[in-house]
Amino acid sequence: MQKEINISVSPKQAADEKQLSRIVASQLRLDEDRVRGIIIRRRSVDARKRDIRINLGILAFIDEEPKPLKPAEKIYPDVSKAAPVIIVGAGPAGLFAALRLVELGMKPVILERGKSVSERKRDIATIHRDQQIEPDSNYGFGEGGAGTFSDGKLYTRSKKRGDVNRILEILHFHGAQDDILIDAHPHIGTNVLPRVVTAMRKTILEAGGEVHFHSRVTDIISQNGKASGVKLKSGQTLSGKAVILATGHSARDVYQMLHDKHLTLEGKPFAMGVRVEHPQELIDSIQYHGRSRGELLPAATYSFAEQVEQRGVYSFCMCPGGMIVPAATAPGELVVNGMSPSGRGGVFANSGIVVEIRLEDIPKNYKRFEQLAGLHFQSDLEQKCFRQANRSQLAPAQRLDDFVKGRLSYDLPETSYRPGIQLSPMHEWLPEHIREKLQKGFIQIGRKANGFLTNNAVIMGVESRTSSPVRIPRDKISLEHIQMPRLFPCGEGAGYAGGIVSSAIDGERCAEAVVRICSASSGV
């Protein structure tokens, strides 16, 4: 017999399978020898009180030998001769759309402006070594999208648990670690994600799909008002039954192309701010009530959401045991982001701390850009940051408490940011709307997390790519662009997702919508 049970145990007990078996037997009021084995199905850390607990969902095998849970089998049919669908972008939305199309019997043709993971690694090394940005191959562009070289967070606020579990199972099938199926806040890690993405590409190719790198899309082709293909920078054109536009939130040229074609776009709220870095040991002490995490607890995380003058100030993409990286996607701009390896074993913790920017907060001189006003505001701040960095990738930085108190820093602490940091009076040049709310937000956070507001922490700029400042509107039912049938805006760049899992879910939804519409009109 098998029985599921939820238990709450100490970190020491959670690390000892024999103790767990005894606790399970006691909870079930059974003799210990009747529990032949256990499998942990769910795991979370509850550090709200000084007595830190590990909450576990356990499958117990009673009077029978344990059976290892088999990973979900995935069968991808041969679609090499099926009707093609163009997918623009090989990020999470594009890759999961492709896999879903294969399952449903259509042939995905992925067009990625950047390079494969292996080639992309070399371009990223060049950013760190020479501070040179390759516009189509960097931390934002290339196979796997911006998520490939990130913490690989798989947490989402999506209420559709079945959809989330399906995404996690597909990632696991392609090489992600077992823990992502168990942990309440799963993550893959920047050292594991590249091989998962490569395995997904292999599945698509083996099923008869296509993946083309160095293929920047410059135009959407239409026939009788319906999207029917794309034109590449090289001049080549490709046709398909539909076009899924899954380009990510940094593809500014795509927004401009759609704007120039007079296709409807919408400005939307977004957020910008700075990235803050603390010693991980300090964050552990704050979150674990003054105790060291030792070997039994994971590197501590945090999540803050404050309200300052009717605007949100919140943490974004918190990376325990991680590092800060240069995330610009074009020369002449400076952007920072964070990432963590799977083990999260680094000595620093970092997170974006950003300020909500509504349309009415964008300076009036940007209104001439219409729906792209937020995009230009974002871009200008990144260019301003680059100039403050003396036209380099050495990030402008300031000690945290000095920034909050509006005073100069005279030196800087050690940092994980490998190009290096340089002293900068960020309290003087950040836009007033962002600066003042960050300062007040940090004070509020410091009241909740004693020790967070300290000069042992450093901020650097700018954290600006939290989400797209533009939405590409689509029909709520068909998921097609409201003006151009067969064009399916998809994922984070279109304004319908935020992060790997929600982007993947949206990619699958768009693939299903493509098949549904194509089947209804002419069959596939």
- Helix fraction by DSSP (H/I, runs of at least 4): 25-40%
Structural class computed from helices and strand pairing: alpha+beta
Count the strands?
22
CATH superfamily of the largest domain: FAD/NAD(P)-binding domain
- How much strand content do the residues show? 15-25%
Side-by-side strand order of the widest sheet: 13-14-17-12-20-18-19
Biggest beta-sheet profile = 7 strands, mixed
From the alpha carbons, calculate the radius of gyration and give it in angstroms: 24 Å
Domain FAD dependent oxidoreductase: 195-263
Domain FAD-binding: 83-121
Protein name: NAD-utilizing dehydrogenase
Organism: Prolixibacter bellariivorans
Short structural description:
The protein is of the alpha+beta class.
Helix and strand arrangement:
Blueprint lengths: L1 E8 L1 H4 L2 H12 L6 E12 L6 E10 L21 E5 L3 H12 L3 E5 L5 H14 L30 H13 L19 H14 L3 E3 L4 E7 L2 E7 L4 E3 L3 E3 L6 H9 L5 E2 L2 E10 H8 L17 E4 L2 E9 L3 E4 L9 E4 L8 E10 L15 H16 L6 E5 H6 L15 E3 L2 H4 L2 H17 L9 E6 L6 E2 L15 E3 L1 H4 L5 H22 L3
Parallel strand pairs: 4-5, 4-10, 5-6, 10-22, 18-19
Antiparallel strand pairs: 1-3, 2-3, 7-8, 8-9, 11-21, 12-17, 12-20, 13-14, 14-17, 15-16, 18-20
Structure write-up:
With 524 residues, this protein is α+β, with helices and mostly antiparallel strands. The chain has 3 domains: 2-62, Alpha-Beta Plaits, CATH 3.30.70; 84-266 and 470-521, 3-Layer(bba) Sandwich (FAD/NAD(P)-binding domain); 269-463, no CATH class. 30% of the residues lie in helices and 24% in strands. The chain is built from 14 helices and 22 strands. It has helices at 11-14, 17-28, 92-103, 117-130, 161-173, 193-206, 252-260, 280-287, 373-388, 400-405, 426-429, 432-448, 491-494, 500-521; strands at residues 2-9, 35-46, 53-62, 84-88, 107-111, 210-212, 217-223, 226-232, 237-239, 243-245, 266-267, 270-279, 305-308, 311-319, 323-326, 336-339, 348-357, 395-399, 421-423, 458-463, 470-471, 487-489. A 7-stranded mixed beta sheet has the order 13-14-17-12-20-18-19. Strands 6-5-4-10-22 form a 5-stranded parallel beta sheet. Strand 7 (217-223) and strand 8 (226-232) form a beta hairpin. Helix 3 (92-103) runs parallel beside helix 6 and helix 5 crosses helix 14. Residues 83-121 form the FAD-binding domain. Pfam families: DAO, FAD-depend_C, FAD_binding_3. Residues 195-263 form the FAD dependent oxidoreductase domain. This is NAD-utilizing dehydrogenase.
